[in-house]
Amino acid sequence: VSQQLKEEIRRGFAELRDPLAGLLDMLESSSDWKGKGHSLGYYITTELQLWIKEHPAVQQSGTKLEKLQARVLRILAQCPANLLDPLISIYQLHTADRNYLLEHVSHLYHKGDYKEAAILSIKLKLQPDQDVEKMCTPLLLQDKTNLVEDYVGEYPELQSKLLQILDTWCEPGFNIRDITRQYQGLSRYKPDKFNRKMLSKLIFRLLDRFNVDPALCPNVINQRHLRTLNYLFYKRFVEKTMTQENWTDHVQSTVGENRWLQGHLIQLLLSYCDLTAAAKWAQRCSLPREMLPDGVADELQKLQIQERVEEAVKADNYEESKKKDYYQLPIPRTSIHFLQTWEETLQCWEKVLRPGQVVGIDMEWRPSFGMVGKPRVSLLQMALKDEVFLLDLPRLLEQAGTEAEKEKLPRFIQMLYSDAAITKLGYGMSGDLSSLAATWSALKDMDKQAQGVIDLLKVDKQVDVLSPEQSYEDRGFRQPEKGLSLLVQHVLGKPLDKTEQLSNWEKRPLREEQILYAASDAYCLLEIYEKLCKDPASFGLSSDLTESLVGKPSIKPRAKKQLNKQEVPSPSGQQCKGLKNETSCPPAPISPKEFSVVCDNMLQGLGRYLRCLGVDVRMLENDDDHRKAAEIARQEGRVILTSGLPYQTLQSQVAEGRCFSVNCSEKAKEQALQVLKHFNVQVSLADIFSRCQ
Question: What SUPFAM superfamilies does the record tag this protein with (predicted)?
Fold first, then answer.
């Protein structure tokens, strides 16, 4: 605002007998302040707020102030957000009669001004005296979840109450229409947004944001555990990528003592396995006979609890065959050290922190299967040329008695990552570093301080695919390799055995298979790096390999070991197909107007974001089959954007390069950047909001 205007406004205040009433006269007789942005009314109001501080004598009290407060309340119902705070401050609304304020908000609510009623309640801190369900329900129906979060933001009691209400709406027999019926004719009502899926996502977001005990929401927790069970059955019996031992371990911890989940487990066993398997689990869970289907109850009576000798023999043969198929550690077992004491750890640190050292680093944590909160790192692996160190982080932290001892580990990790003289090798390093930050808050900016790191995820996007004679003959049924395993196969000739990836890394003692898997995951990085440095040209890489790769961790990690049913990483075959062409000749730049996509139903947020940037977007509805995306893509010449398992189905139904898999665990903005970069879409200022929203 120009100095001249400010002086004019202040001169006007000085000449008024009652500037507070004068401001209301002006606001009541004009409407320029009702629009968004900084109106003249806004400048005059904010200037009065400052002027009152310099002239406290103009402040009113008693009946005079009450009359002014009654007038300003009528204005507040219509004014934009930027005017609320100055007006509340000028007319001291925090000192007004609380019942009067509640009555006014109630009046707004009954007029159907739900958003205005909620915003005013937040500003005047009226929430403890209101019914949280009544205030928040219409906002949820209008898809104003952010406002609901703000409404309960400062009140833990209301957060718990709201979560319990939302969870009862997710009960299996509950009819959501019972709620929507009460709000017939609600303006801006979005019925497609108000469903169990949306409620479930919102509950998990609130549990995470407000750090509330998940036990308050048994319905959504059970539903998510059931999805985890379905996912575990898929991994074990369809993909066949999980060992019996790991699968059993996860199934046991997923169903726990919950009878409802145990009942579903028996049904799944009958679908995927047989009566014997169902009976064994019924016995393990001590399920009462009346809960069991007839066939299972009969089988339970016949069941002899005996380990069959054939099973053991079969397992031994399987282990031998695996050695032929998968990458094997080239160092003896005695060179893998599992460290659980501080004395052992200090000796390891001396070796790792030597200048010029090259270290392969990986981490393991218990799979979270989409539950609340980030997982904590359970195992830190560091591979040197002749030995591998596995640090048992939970045990070491347990032994740390004093605060100073607890700081030892994060301090060592900081020294390691910030030392440019030590080369650190990783794969999707920023994913590992964010899990370290969840374990120790002191490491939250580690990715910014890291020096001398080489993220082989970057290489993975540049390496040429090897010739087809590296075939899968004699390997039986196996899923296509992906991620680090695929890179190991391309560079070293055999893939990693990933059957232990989803095992329970918190359980002690670790099994021998877990120890070998963890050591291999870190050590293979050294071998890949060595081979690429010796002969970068044969892998389609430039000769200045180390120069181009040493630096900050890759910003876009693949989702590792944090899978839930909706977030299964796509096979990185997509990244590898025709990479030679991609690296030498990226696609010609196009504008958002020329780029048309169809977004699968798990990527609606991405779809909305791309539409804001001017991209021609069609989105699948929540209940649409994923295959509809392929139909639309073929009919309208669109690119499919999808994620997880549907990618495998959809990519085969359209031309090569017309289906792209997006990382579901990232936010819409990051996903959009990934898509724009991949298809070389150049966004200009004119494109933003160029399409009707």
Answer: Ribonuclease H-like (SSF53098)
What are the distances in angstroms from CA 262 to CA 2, 225, 265? 71, 11, 5
- pTM (two decimals): 0.60
Specify whether 540 is located in the same domain as 671.
Answer: no
**Cα separation, 64 vs 62, whole angstroms:** 5
Measured distance CA(643)–CA(651) in Å, rounded = 11
Q: Domain count of the chain?
A: 3
State whether 392 and 502 are in the same domain: yes
Q: Do residues 52 and 91 make contact, with C-beta atoms less than 8 angstroms apart?
A: no
Q: Tell me the C-alpha distance between 345 and 314, whole Å.
A: 39
Q: Which residues contact 130 (CB under 8 A, 6 or more apart)?
A: 102, 105, 121
Q: How far is CA 129 from CA 69, 105, 124, in A?
A: 20, 11, 11
Print the domain residue range for 286. 220-301
Q: Which residues pair with 390 in a beta bridge?
A: 338, 381
Extract the tokens encoding 504. Answer: 């329970």
DSSP string, 467-486: PTTS--TT--S-PPP-HHHH
Co-location of 242 and 389 in the same domain: no
Cβ contacts of residue 83 below 8 Å, gap of 6+?
Answer: 33, 41, 42, 45
Alpha-carbon gap, residue 512 to 497, rounded angstroms: 14
pLDDT, tens digit, 9 for 90 and up, residues 291-318 = 999 889 888 888 744 434 344 444 455 4
Beta bridge partners, 361, equal 382
Does the N-terminal peptide bond of residue 509 adopt cis geometry, omega within 30 degrees of 0? yes
Amino acid 106: pLDDT? 96
